[in-house]
Amino acid sequence: MNAFWLLTRRELVRFLRRPSQVGATLATPIVIWLFLAAGLGNAAENYAGSLAPAMAILVVLFSTIFAGMSLIEDRHAGLLRGVLISPAPRWAIAGGKLAPAALIAAAQGLPILLATLLLDSRPDPLGLLLGTLVLILAAIAVGGLGLAFAWWIDSPRGFHGLVTAAIMPLWLLSGAVFPEGAEADWINALETINPVAWCVRTLDAALALSPADAPFALAGTLAFAATGLISATLSVGRSAR
Protein backbone atom coordinates (compact mmCIF):
# COMPACT_ATOMS: atom_id res chain seq x y z
CA MET A 1 0.00 0.00 0.00
CA ASN A 2 2.94 2.35 0.65
CA ALA A 3 4.12 1.91 -2.94
CA PHE A 4 0.58 2.46 -4.21
CA TRP A 5 0.10 5.69 -2.28
CA LEU A 6 3.55 7.05 -3.13
CA LEU A 7 3.08 6.44 -6.84
CA THR A 8 -0.44 7.89 -6.71
CA ARG A 9 0.79 11.00 -4.91
CA ARG A 10 3.61 11.43 -7.41
CA GLU A 11 1.22 11.35 -10.37
CA LEU A 12 -1.15 13.86 -8.75
CA VAL A 13 1.72 16.24 -7.95
CA ARG A 14 3.02 15.89 -11.50
CA PHE A 15 -0.41 16.78 -12.85
CA LEU A 16 -0.74 19.85 -10.63
CA ARG A 17 2.64 21.08 -11.84
CA ARG A 18 1.49 20.90 -15.48
CA PRO A 19 -1.47 23.27 -15.79
CA SER A 20 -1.12 23.26 -19.59
CA GLN A 21 -2.19 19.60 -19.54
CA VAL A 22 -5.60 20.63 -18.21
CA GLY A 23 -6.11 23.04 -21.08
CA ALA A 24 -4.91 20.53 -23.65
CA THR A 25 -7.36 17.92 -22.36
CA LEU A 26 -10.41 20.17 -22.16
CA ALA A 27 -9.89 22.43 -25.17
CA THR A 28 -10.50 19.95 -28.00
CA PRO A 29 -13.70 18.35 -26.62
CA ILE A 30 -15.20 21.73 -25.70
CA VAL A 31 -14.48 23.16 -29.17
CA ILE A 32 -16.01 20.08 -30.80
CA TRP A 33 -19.03 20.38 -28.49
CA LEU A 34 -19.59 24.05 -29.29
CA PHE A 35 -19.28 23.62 -33.04
CA LEU A 36 -21.50 20.55 -33.20
CA ALA A 37 -24.19 22.25 -31.11
CA ALA A 38 -23.95 25.60 -32.90
CA GLY A 39 -24.28 23.91 -36.27
CA LEU A 40 -27.88 22.93 -35.47
CA GLY A 41 -29.11 26.49 -35.00
CA ASN A 42 -32.32 26.64 -32.96
CA ALA A 43 -31.97 23.03 -31.83
CA ALA A 44 -28.47 23.71 -30.47
CA GLU A 45 -29.46 23.88 -26.81
CA ASN A 46 -31.32 20.58 -26.79
CA TYR A 47 -28.61 18.87 -28.80
CA ALA A 48 -25.88 20.26 -26.52
CA GLY A 49 -27.64 18.77 -23.52
CA SER A 50 -28.03 15.36 -25.14
CA LEU A 51 -24.40 15.43 -26.30
CA ALA A 52 -23.02 16.26 -22.83
CA PRO A 53 -22.47 12.63 -21.70
CA ALA A 54 -20.55 11.83 -24.88
CA MET A 55 -18.41 14.96 -24.48
CA ALA A 56 -17.61 14.07 -20.87
CA ILE A 57 -16.50 10.61 -22.02
CA LEU A 58 -14.38 12.24 -24.75
CA VAL A 59 -12.62 14.34 -22.09
CA VAL A 60 -11.90 11.13 -20.18
CA LEU A 61 -10.51 9.49 -23.32
CA PHE A 62 -8.17 12.39 -24.02
CA SER A 63 -7.08 12.65 -20.40
CA THR A 64 -6.06 9.01 -20.15
CA ILE A 65 -3.64 9.46 -23.06
CA PHE A 66 -1.37 11.39 -20.70
CA ALA A 67 -1.28 8.47 -18.24
CA GLY A 68 0.30 6.23 -20.85
CA MET A 69 2.67 8.95 -21.98
CA SER A 70 3.81 9.54 -18.38
CA LEU A 71 4.68 5.85 -18.13
CA ILE A 72 6.89 6.12 -21.21
CA GLU A 73 8.52 9.24 -19.74
CA ASP A 74 9.26 7.35 -16.51
CA ARG A 75 10.86 4.55 -18.51
CA HIS A 76 13.15 7.00 -20.32
CA ALA A 77 14.04 8.73 -17.05
CA GLY A 78 15.03 5.41 -15.41
CA LEU A 79 12.41 5.65 -12.68
CA LEU A 80 10.39 2.72 -14.01
CA ARG A 81 13.34 0.34 -13.74
CA GLY A 82 13.84 1.27 -10.10
CA VAL A 83 10.15 0.71 -9.37
CA LEU A 84 10.10 -2.67 -11.13
CA ILE A 85 13.07 -4.08 -9.18
CA SER A 86 11.60 -2.92 -5.88
CA PRO A 87 9.60 -5.28 -3.61
CA ALA A 88 6.41 -3.44 -4.58
CA PRO A 89 3.75 -5.84 -5.92
CA ARG A 90 2.71 -5.46 -9.53
CA TRP A 91 -0.85 -4.45 -8.64
CA ALA A 92 0.54 -1.53 -6.61
CA ILE A 93 2.62 -0.31 -9.54
CA ALA A 94 -0.28 -0.57 -11.98
CA GLY A 95 -2.71 0.92 -9.45
CA GLY A 96 -0.34 3.76 -8.63
CA LYS A 97 -0.51 4.78 -12.26
CA LEU A 98 -4.14 3.96 -12.97
CA ALA A 99 -5.85 5.36 -9.85
CA PRO A 100 -4.61 8.96 -10.24
CA ALA A 101 -5.27 8.82 -13.99
CA ALA A 102 -8.88 7.80 -13.31
CA LEU A 103 -9.39 10.49 -10.66
CA ILE A 104 -7.87 13.20 -12.85
CA ALA A 105 -9.90 12.14 -15.88
CA ALA A 106 -13.15 12.10 -13.88
CA ALA A 107 -12.35 15.51 -12.38
CA GLN A 108 -11.77 16.92 -15.85
CA GLY A 109 -14.96 15.41 -17.22
CA LEU A 110 -17.08 16.70 -14.33
CA PRO A 111 -17.23 20.34 -15.59
CA ILE A 112 -18.96 19.04 -18.73
CA LEU A 113 -21.60 17.39 -16.58
CA LEU A 114 -21.95 20.54 -14.48
CA ALA A 115 -22.45 22.54 -17.67
CA THR A 116 -25.68 20.62 -18.24
CA LEU A 117 -27.11 22.59 -15.30
CA LEU A 118 -27.16 25.60 -17.64
CA LEU A 119 -29.06 23.70 -20.31
CA ASP A 120 -32.55 22.21 -20.49
CA SER A 121 -31.46 18.95 -18.88
CA ARG A 122 -30.84 19.64 -15.20
CA PRO A 123 -29.45 16.54 -13.55
CA ASP A 124 -30.11 15.86 -9.91
CA PRO A 125 -27.06 16.11 -7.57
CA LEU A 126 -27.34 12.36 -7.07
CA GLY A 127 -27.28 11.96 -10.83
CA LEU A 128 -24.07 14.01 -10.98
CA LEU A 129 -22.54 11.76 -8.32
CA LEU A 130 -23.52 8.61 -10.21
CA GLY A 131 -22.27 10.19 -13.42
CA THR A 132 -18.89 10.88 -11.80
CA LEU A 133 -18.63 7.23 -10.78
CA VAL A 134 -19.32 6.21 -14.38
CA LEU A 135 -16.57 8.58 -15.54
CA ILE A 136 -14.18 6.87 -13.12
CA LEU A 137 -15.13 3.46 -14.50
CA ALA A 138 -14.60 4.68 -18.06
CA ALA A 139 -11.22 6.15 -17.09
CA ILE A 140 -10.14 2.88 -15.45
CA ALA A 141 -11.13 0.97 -18.59
CA VAL A 142 -9.45 3.21 -21.15
CA GLY A 143 -6.54 4.15 -18.89
CA GLY A 144 -5.80 0.52 -18.10
CA LEU A 145 -5.73 -0.44 -21.76
CA GLY A 146 -3.62 2.63 -22.52
CA LEU A 147 -1.08 1.65 -19.86
CA ALA A 148 -1.00 -1.87 -21.26
CA PHE A 149 -0.10 -0.47 -24.69
CA ALA A 150 2.44 1.92 -23.13
CA TRP A 151 4.40 -0.99 -21.63
CA TRP A 152 5.23 -2.15 -25.14
CA ILE A 153 5.54 1.16 -27.04
CA ASP A 154 8.73 3.11 -26.36
CA SER A 155 7.93 6.27 -28.34
CA PRO A 156 5.60 8.95 -26.90
CA ARG A 157 4.73 10.06 -30.44
CA GLY A 158 3.97 6.54 -31.54
CA PHE A 159 1.80 5.94 -28.48
CA HIS A 160 -0.06 9.22 -28.91
CA GLY A 161 -0.74 8.56 -32.58
CA LEU A 162 -1.89 4.98 -32.01
CA VAL A 163 -4.20 5.81 -29.11
CA THR A 164 -5.67 8.89 -30.80
CA ALA A 165 -6.37 6.89 -33.96
CA ALA A 166 -8.26 4.35 -31.83
CA ILE A 167 -10.11 6.86 -29.64
CA MET A 168 -11.86 8.98 -32.28
CA PRO A 169 -13.59 6.11 -34.17
CA LEU A 170 -14.73 4.58 -30.88
CA TRP A 171 -16.16 7.91 -29.76
CA LEU A 172 -17.80 8.68 -33.10
CA LEU A 173 -19.49 5.27 -32.91
CA SER A 174 -20.72 5.87 -29.36
CA GLY A 175 -24.26 6.57 -30.56
CA ALA A 176 -24.35 10.18 -29.38
CA VAL A 177 -23.00 12.01 -32.43
CA PHE A 178 -25.32 10.83 -35.20
CA PRO A 179 -29.12 11.32 -34.98
CA GLU A 180 -30.90 8.23 -33.70
CA GLY A 181 -32.30 6.11 -36.49
CA ALA A 182 -30.31 7.91 -39.20
CA GLU A 183 -27.22 5.71 -39.08
CA ALA A 184 -26.44 2.94 -41.52
CA ASP A 185 -27.12 -0.60 -40.35
CA TRP A 186 -23.42 -1.41 -40.05
CA ILE A 187 -22.93 1.62 -37.79
CA ASN A 188 -25.77 0.43 -35.56
CA ALA A 189 -24.13 -2.98 -35.36
CA LEU A 190 -20.78 -1.47 -34.35
CA GLU A 191 -22.44 0.74 -31.73
CA THR A 192 -23.91 -2.36 -30.11
CA ILE A 193 -20.46 -3.87 -29.45
CA ASN A 194 -18.59 -0.60 -28.88
CA PRO A 195 -17.46 -0.39 -25.20
CA VAL A 196 -17.30 3.41 -25.37
CA ALA A 197 -20.97 3.41 -26.40
CA TRP A 198 -21.72 1.36 -23.29
CA CYS A 199 -20.03 4.03 -21.16
CA VAL A 200 -21.98 6.85 -22.85
CA ARG A 201 -25.33 5.08 -22.37
CA THR A 202 -24.54 4.25 -18.76
CA LEU A 203 -23.57 7.85 -18.08
CA ASP A 204 -26.74 9.13 -19.72
CA ALA A 205 -28.83 6.74 -17.62
CA ALA A 206 -26.95 7.72 -14.44
CA LEU A 207 -27.60 11.43 -15.01
CA ALA A 208 -31.28 10.62 -15.50
CA LEU A 209 -31.28 8.49 -12.33
CA SER A 210 -32.41 5.47 -14.34
CA PRO A 211 -29.42 3.09 -14.52
CA ALA A 212 -31.85 0.16 -14.44
CA ASP A 213 -33.00 1.22 -17.90
CA ALA A 214 -29.58 0.35 -19.34
CA PRO A 215 -28.63 -3.00 -17.74
CA PHE A 216 -26.66 -4.19 -20.77
CA ALA A 217 -24.66 -0.95 -20.97
CA LEU A 218 -24.01 -0.96 -17.21
CA ALA A 219 -22.78 -4.57 -17.28
CA GLY A 220 -20.63 -3.76 -20.32
CA THR A 221 -19.12 -0.71 -18.61
CA LEU A 222 -18.22 -2.75 -15.51
CA ALA A 223 -16.69 -5.49 -17.68
CA PHE A 224 -14.80 -2.85 -19.69
CA ALA A 225 -13.35 -1.36 -16.48
CA ALA A 226 -12.34 -4.80 -15.21
CA THR A 227 -10.64 -5.54 -18.54
CA GLY A 228 -8.63 -2.32 -18.34
CA LEU A 229 -7.57 -2.99 -14.75
CA ILE A 230 -6.54 -6.57 -15.44
CA SER A 231 -4.71 -5.63 -18.65
CA ALA A 232 -2.62 -2.98 -16.89
CA THR A 233 -1.72 -5.32 -14.00
CA LEU A 234 -0.76 -8.23 -16.25
CA SER A 235 1.33 -5.99 -18.48
CA VAL A 236 3.40 -4.84 -15.52
CA GLY A 237 4.24 -8.43 -14.63
CA ARG A 238 5.19 -9.35 -18.18
CA SER A 239 7.32 -6.26 -18.57
CA ALA A 240 9.17 -7.09 -15.33
CA ARG A 241 10.07 -10.55 -16.60
Commentary on this structure:
With 241 residues, this protein is an all-alpha fold. It has one domain (2-240). The protein is built from ten helices and no strands. The chain has helices at residues 2-16, 19-38, 44-77, 79-84, 90-115, 125-150, 156-172, 185-193, 195-207, 215-240. The radius of gyration is 18 Å and the shape is globular. The two termini are 22 Å apart. The relative contact order is 0.14. The mean pLDDT is 78.
Which secondary structure elements does this structure contain, and how are they paired or packed?
Elements: H1 2-16, H2 19-38, H3 44-77, H4 79-84, H5 90-115, H6 125-150, H7 156-172, H8 185-193, H9 195-207, H10 215-240
Number of helices: 10
Shape verdict: globular
Characterize the main sheet: none
**Assembly context of the chains:** single chain
**SSE succession:** HHHHHHHHHH
Strand content: under 5%
Radius of gyration: 18 Å
Report the structural category: mainly alpha
User: How many domains make up the 3D coordinates?
Assistant: 1
- Terminal Cα separation, in Å? 22 Å
Report the mean per-residue pLDDT as an integer.
78
Low-pLDDT segments: none
Number of strands: 0
| Overall helicity | over 70%
